[in-house]
C-alpha cells in the first residue's frame, strides 16, 4: 500500500496530540504532591517519540524527502505548508516543556496547554489538506470528524492503557481518571457514527470526472469489509467501556481489551480512508 506511510504519520501524530490533550483535560484529577511529575515526564517523552516517528514516516511518502522544506514557502495559500509549520511549532514547544519539567521538576501546565493547542491546530490543518484534495471520498466534514475524533479516541485509549497496566494512583483517583477518559472516547465514537449517514448520502450523489485518474468511489466500495471491521472494533471497544463504567471498580482486563479494540479500529478505519484506488 503506497499510502501506508501516511497511515503511520497521521495516526502517530494524532495519538501524540491526543495524549497531550488527555493530560491537560485530566490534570485537575491528579494528586498535587509529587505524582504530577512522575506522570507527565514519561508521557511527554512518549509523545515526542511518537510525533518524531510520525514525521519520519511522512517523509517516506515523498520521492525526495528534502522537498518537504520547500512546502514552507506557501504558508498563505497551502494547507500542507501550514501543517508542516504547525508540526514544527508543536515539536518545539514540546521540547521546551520537557526541558522545563526536567529542570524545575514541575509540570509547566500553561505551556502544556499551548503545546496541545498547537497540536490540535496541526491536526485541523492535516484534515484540511485532505478535505481540499481532489479525492471525492475525502471532501466531506467526515474527514474532520475522523481525524479530530481519532485524537480523542487514540489519546484516551493510550492513557487508559497506561492506567490499567501500571496504576500510579489510589483507587479513587484512578476511577475518576478512567471515567473521564472513557466518556471522552465514547463521545468521540458517537459523534463520528452520527456523521456517517450524511457522509453516505454525500457519496451517493458524488460525481467523479471521467478523466480523474483515481477511482476513489470504486475503492470506497471495495474497502467496505475493512471499514466494517474497523467500525465493529470501534463500537465494540466503546460498548466495553460503557460496561466498565457501570461497575464500581471496572476490571482492568476489560479496560485493556476495550482500549486495544479502539486502537485496532482506528488503524483499520485509517487504512480504509487511504484506499483511494482499485
From TrEMBL:
The keyword Membrane applies. Keywords: Membrane, Transmembrane, Transmembrane helix. The chain crosses the membrane at residues 6-29, 41-64, 84-102, 111-138, 144-165, 177-195, 228-246. InterPro entries: DmsC. GO terms for biological process: anaerobic electron transport chain. One of its GO terms (molecular function) is dimethyl sulfoxide reductase activity. Signal peptide: none annotated. It holds the Pfam family DmsC. One of its GO terms (cellular component) is plasma membrane. PANTHER family: ANAEROBIC DIMETHYL SULFOXIDE REDUCTASE CHAIN C, ANAEROBIC DIMETHYL SULFOXIDE REDUCTASE CHAIN YNFH. This is Anaerobic dimethyl sulfoxide reductase chain C. It comes from Cronobacter muytjensii.
Amino acid at each position: 500500500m503506497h499510502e501506508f506511510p501516511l497511515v503511520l504519520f497521521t495516526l502517530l501524530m494524532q495519538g501524540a496530540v491526543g495524549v497531550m490533550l488527555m493530560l491537560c483535560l485530566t490534570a485537575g484529577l491528579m494528586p498535587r504532591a509529587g505524582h504530577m511529575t512522575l506522570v507527565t515526564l514519561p508521557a511527554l517523552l512518549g509523545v515526542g517519540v511518537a510525533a518524531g516517528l510520525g514525521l519520519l514516516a511522512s517523509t517516506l511518502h515523498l520521492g525526495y524527502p528534502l522537498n518537504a522544506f520547500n512546502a514552507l514557502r506557501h504558508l498563505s495559500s497551502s494547507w500542507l505548508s501550514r501543517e508542516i509549520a504547525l508540526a514544527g511549532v508543536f515539536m518545539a514547544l514540546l521540547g521546551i516543556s520537557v526541558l522545563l519539567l526536567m529542570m524545575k521538576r514541575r509540570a509547566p501546565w500553561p505551556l502544556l496547554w499551548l503545546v496541545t493547542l498547537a497540536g490540535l491546530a496541526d491536526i485541523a490543518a492535516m484534515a484540511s489538506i485532505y478535505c481540499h484534495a481532489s479525492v471525492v471520498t475525502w471532501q466531506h466534514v467526515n474527514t474532520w470528524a475522523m481525524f479530530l475524533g481519532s485524537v480523542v479516541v487514540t489519546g484516551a485509549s493510550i492513557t487508559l492503557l497506561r492506567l490499567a497496566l501500571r496504576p500510579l494512583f489510589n483507587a479513587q483517583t484512578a476511577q475518576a481518571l478512567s471515567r473521564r477518559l472513557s466518556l471522552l472516547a465514547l463521545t468521540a465514537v458517537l459523534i463520528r457514527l452520527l456523521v456517517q449517514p450524511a457522509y453516505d448520502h454525500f457519496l451517493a450523489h458524488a460525481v467523479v470526472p471521467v478523466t480523474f485518474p483515481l477511482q476513489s468511489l470504486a475503492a470506497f466500495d471495495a474497502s467496505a469489509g475493512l471499514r466494517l471491521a474497523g467500525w465493529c472494533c470501534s463500537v465494540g471497544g466503546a460498548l466495553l467501556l460503557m460496561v466498565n463504567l457501570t461497575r464500581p471498580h471496572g476490571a482492568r482486563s476489560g479496560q485493556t481489551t476495550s482500549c486495544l479494540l479502539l486502537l485496532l479500529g482506528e488503524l483499520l478505519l485509517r487504512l480504509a480512508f487511504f484506499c483511494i484506488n482499485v
